[in-house]
C-alpha cells in the first residue's frame, strides 16, 4: 500500500534507468523529496506569516477574507484562491480570533482497471475558521484578525495589529536566528535582532558616505529621533540643527565622561583658548564655567534669565564685586578686608554701595524701605526721603511708636509712643491709637477683633459680639472664634489633639481624628460611627470614610478607610420603593454575612430569597 506520510528528513531521491519497473511509491517518493526541500527552505530561511493578500473585512455578522497566500511555521503554503466568508452568531459574543491553517484533501476519485478506485489529486488549500483567543494548537495556524462580536452576532470591530507578515530568517546558531519582516500596518520593516555593519550606513541619501553613519533629514521628518520603550523622546535632532535631550515630562541629561569632561562652545571662532567651556574637574570635584573672550583678562559670562536665577547653595565671588546694573560699576556689593581697603580702612566684611546712597527694605505687603543712607553719611529709618539729620527715625504706621530700646536680656529700656509719650524702664506700656488699649496682666480689645494672622487677613480671629455688633446676623452676646473655612478647639498635652472642629457648611465634629468619620463621646464607652447608602451597582450615594466593592450578585464588601479599634456593630436595611411608593415584598431584605475591624459584607435579595443587586443603607457603630 502506498505511503504518503511526509517524514521529517528526506535524504534520498529516485534515480531512474531504462527498462526500470516503477511503482506508485517511486512517484510518491519523488514528490516527497521536492516537498521536503521546498518546505525546509521556507521553514528555515523564511518566517511564518502572510505573504500576500488575505485582507479581512466585515459587514454585519459576516466577515470576509480576500484571496491570498501565507506560509506557516512548517514551511507549508496556505493558498486561498477565492474569497471566503464566515458568519458569526450571538453564541460568539466577545472577542474571537479569525485564523487560517493548512489543509490537504485527496480529490478527483476515478475507477481504474479491474474496478480499482482511487484519488488522482491532492488539493492543497487553506481553512478559514474562528475561535476564542488563547488557543495553543500546534497546527501552523496564522492569525488574520481579532474580531469584536456584539450580542446579536454583528462584528463591531476588526483589529489587524496582531497580523504577522512573512519575512526572511537569517541563519544562525540554534535559537539565535534573526528575522526581517514587515510591520502589521505594512509601513516599515522590522528586524528582531541587533544589526552589525562592516561598511558605512547612509540613510536618506545616495551620496558616498562621509562617515560611518550618515543621516539626511527630509522636510517633514527630523534626521534623528531616539525613544524609550514607552515611545517617549530621549533625543531629537531637528532639521533646524537643535538637539533636544529628554521628553517634556522627564529629566534630560547629557553625560560627558572623563576625569576632565569638557563641553566647548564656539569651536573654531576667534576666542581665547581656555574660554567658552563648561568643564568638570574630577580632582577638584567642581564644575567650571569659563566665559568667552579673546584674552584671559576680558572673559565674560552673560546669563539671560528674565524670570529669575536660583542658586541652591552658597555663591562665592572670590573677592570680586557684584554689580547690580548693566555697565554700571557704581552700584554693587563686595567684601573689603586685608589689603583691600575702604576709605583707608579695612572693613573686614560686606559693603553694599550706591552712587548717591542706598536702602535696606522689604517687599511683604508692597515695597517698603526700612533704612536709608545718602552720600553725606546720614541714616534715615522709616522715612521715605533723604534724611536731613545724622540719624532720623519715623514711625511707619499711625499706631506704631518710632523708637524702642531694649537691654541684652530683652527688657525694654526706652520707648516712645505715637503720642510722644516716652517711657524709660517702666513696668507698664500704654498705646493710644484711637481707643484706649492697655497691656497689664490682661488685654482689653474694647469690642475690636483680635486677628490671628497678618494685617491683610481678617478671616481668622477672636471677637466679642453683642450689642455693639452682629455675627451671622445674630448677637451671641459672647465671644466668637472664627476662621475662613472652619476652625477647631484643641489641646497640646500629650501632643496636638482636636476636641471639637467645625466647617464652613456648619458641620461640627466632636473628638475628630481627622479620618473623615464621626465620633461621639458618651457613656458607658467612647463610640465611633460611620453611616452610608449604597446603590445596587456598588456606587456610594451617601456617606464618607468607606469604599464599596462588589463580591458577586447581591454581595457587597464595605471597607472602612480607617479600621475600628474593635469589631463594630452593623445595622443594615434595604430600600425598595416599589410601584406607586407602596414598597416591595417584606421579604426583600439585607443580611450581614460577616464583619471585622476593617470591613463587613452584606447580602441583598429579592422576595424569593434569591441574591439580587439592591439599594441599601447601613450604620457601623464601634470603638
Explain how this protein is built.
By secondary structure, the chain is mainly beta. It is 4% helix and 41% strand. Strand 33 and strand 34 form a beta hairpin.
Measured by DSSP, the beta-strand proportion falls in 35-45%
Percent helix range: under 10%
Spatial extent as radius of gyration:
45 Å
Largest sheet entry: 5 strands, antiparallel
Extended strand count: 49
Tell the overall outline: flat
CATH class of the domain at 1-110 and 117-192: Mainly Beta
Look at the structure and give the mean pLDDT: 81
CATH topology of the domain at 1-110 and 117-192: Triple-stranded beta-helix
Structural class by secondary-structure content: mainly beta
Topology overview:
Elements (H helix, E strand, L loop, with lengths): L23 H22 E2 L1 E5 L2 E4 L2 E4 L2 E4 L5 E4 L3 E4 L6 E18 L5 E15 L10 E8 L5 E5 L7 E4 L7 E5 L6 E3 L9 E3 L9 E3 L8 E4 L5 E5 L5 E3 L14 E5 L12 E5 L4 E5 L31 E4 L2 E9 L12 E5 L3 E6 L5 E7 L4 E3 L9 E3 L9 E4 L5 E5 L5 E3 L4 E3 L5 E3 L10 E2 L9 E5 L12 E5 L3 E6 L5 E7 L4 E3 L7 E3 L6 E8 L5 E3 L3 E7 L2 E6 L8 E6 L15 E6 L3 E6 L11 E7 L1
Parallel strand pairs: 15-16, 28-29
Antiparallel strand pairs: 1-12, 2-5, 3-4, 4-7, 5-6, 8-9, 8-10, 10-11, 12-13, 13-14, 17-18, 18-19, 20-21, 21-22, 23-24, 24-25, 26-27, 27-28, 30-31, 31-32, 33-34, 35-36, 36-37, 38-39, 39-40, 41-42, 42-43, 42-49, 44-45, 45-48, 46-49, 47-48
Amino acid at each position: 500500500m502506498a505511503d504518503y506520510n511526509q517524514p521529517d528528513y528526506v535524504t534520498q531521491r529516485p534515480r531512474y534507468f531504462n527498462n526500470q519497473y516503477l511503482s506508485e511509491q517511486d512517484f510518491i517518493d519523488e514528490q516527497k523529496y521536492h516537498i521536503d526541500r521546498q518546505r525546509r527552505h521556507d521553514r528555515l530561511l523564511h518566517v511564518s506569516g502572510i505573504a500576500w493578500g488575505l485582507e479581512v473585512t466585515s459587514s454585519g455578522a459576516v466577515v470576509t477574507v480576500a484571496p491570498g497566500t501565507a506560509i506557516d511555521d512548517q514551511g507549508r503554503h496556505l493558498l486561498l484562491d477565492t474569497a471566503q466568508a464566515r458568519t458569526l452568531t450571538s453564541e460568539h459574543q466577545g472577542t474571537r480570533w479569525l485564523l487560517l491553517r493548512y489543509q490537504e484533501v485527496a480529490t478527483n476519485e476515478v475507477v481504474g482497471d479491474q474496478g480499482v478506485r482511487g484519488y488522482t489529486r491532492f488539493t492543497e488549500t487553506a481553512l478559514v475558521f474562528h475561535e476564542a483567543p488563547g488557543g495553543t494548537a500546534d497546527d501552523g495556524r496564522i492569525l488574520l484578525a481579532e474580531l469584536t462580536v456584539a450580542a446579536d452576532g454583528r462584528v463591531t470591530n476588526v483589529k489587524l495589529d496582531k497580523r504577522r507578515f512573512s519575512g526572511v530568517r537569517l541563519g544562525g546558531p540554534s535559537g539565535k536566528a534573526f528575522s526581517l519582516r514587515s510591520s502589521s500596518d505594512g509601513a516599515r520593516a522590522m528586524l528582531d535582532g541587533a544589526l552589525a555593519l562592516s561598511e558605512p550606513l547612509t540613510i536618506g541619501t545616495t551620496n558616498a558616505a562621509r562617515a560611518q553613519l550618515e543621516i539626511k533629514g527630509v522636510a517633514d521628518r527630523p534626521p534623528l529621533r531616539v525613544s524609550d520603550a514607552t515611545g517617549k523622546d530621549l533625543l531629537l535632532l531637528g532639521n533646524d540643527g537643535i538637539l533636544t535631550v529628554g521628553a517634556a515630562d522627564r529629566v534630560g541629561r547629557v553625560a560627558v565622561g572623563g576625569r576632565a569632561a569638557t563641553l566647548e562652545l564656539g569651536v573654531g571662532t576667534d576666542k581665547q583658548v581656555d574660554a567658552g567651556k563648561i568643564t568638570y574637574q574630577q580632582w577638584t570635584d567642581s564644575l567650571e564655567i569659563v566665559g568667552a573672550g579673546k584674552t584671559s583678562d576680558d572673559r565674560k559670562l552673560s546669563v539671560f534669565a528674565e524670570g529669575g536665577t536660583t542658586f541652591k547653595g552658597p555663591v562665592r565671588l572670590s573677592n570680586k564685586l557684584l554689580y547690580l546694573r548693566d555697565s554700571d560699576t557704581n552700584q554693587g556689593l563686595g567684601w573689603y578686608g586685608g589689603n583691600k581697603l575702604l576709605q583707608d580702612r579695612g572693613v573686614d566684611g560686606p559693603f553694599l554701595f550706591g552712587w548717591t546712597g542706598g536702602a535696606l527694605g522689604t517687599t511683604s505687603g508692597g515695597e517698603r524701605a526700612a533704612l536709608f543712607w545718602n552720600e553725606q553719611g546720614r541714616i534715615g529709618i522709616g522715612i521715605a526721603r533723604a534724611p536731613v539729620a545724622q540719624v532720623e527715625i519715623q514711625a511707619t504706621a499711625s499706631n506704631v511708636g518710632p523708637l524702642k530700646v531694649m537691654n541684652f536680656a530683652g527688657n525694654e529700656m526706652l520707648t516712645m509712643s505715637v503720642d510722644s509719650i516716652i517711657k524709660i524702664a517702666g513696668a507698664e506700656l500704654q498705646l493710644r491709637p484711637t481707643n484706649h488699649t492697655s497691656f497689664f496682666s490682661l488685654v482689653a480689645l474694647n469690642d475690636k477683633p483680635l486677628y490671628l494672622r497678618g494685617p491683610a487677613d481678617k478671616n481668622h480671629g477672636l471677637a466679642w459680639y453683642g450689642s455693639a455688633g452682629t455675627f451671622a446676623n445674630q448677637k451671641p452676646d459672647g465671644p466668637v472664634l472664627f476662621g475662613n473655612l472652619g476652625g477647631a478647639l484643641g489641646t497640646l498635652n500629650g501632643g496636638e489633639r482636636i476636641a471639637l472642629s467645625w466647617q464652613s457648611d456648619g458641620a461640627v465634629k466632636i473628638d475628630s481624628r481627622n479620618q473623615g468619620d464621626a465620633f461621639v463621646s458618651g457613656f458607658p464607652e467612647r463610640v465611633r460611627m460611620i453611616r452610608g447608602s449604597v446603590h445596587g451597582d456598588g456606587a456610594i450615594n451617601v456617606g464618607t470614610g468607606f469604599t464599596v466593592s462588589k463580591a458577586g450578585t447581591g454581595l457587597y464588601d464595605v471597607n472602612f478607610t480607617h479600621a475600628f479599634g474593635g469589631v463594630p456593630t452593623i445595622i443594615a436595611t434595604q430600600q425598595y420603593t416599589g410601584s406607586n411608593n407602596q414598597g416591595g415584598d417584606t421579604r426583600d431584605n439585607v443580611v450581614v454575612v460577616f464583619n471585622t475591624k476593617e470591613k463587613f459584607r452584606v447580602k441583598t435579595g429579592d422576595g424569593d430569597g434569591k441574591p439580587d443587586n439592591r439599594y441599601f443603607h447601613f450604620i457601623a457603630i464601634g470603638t
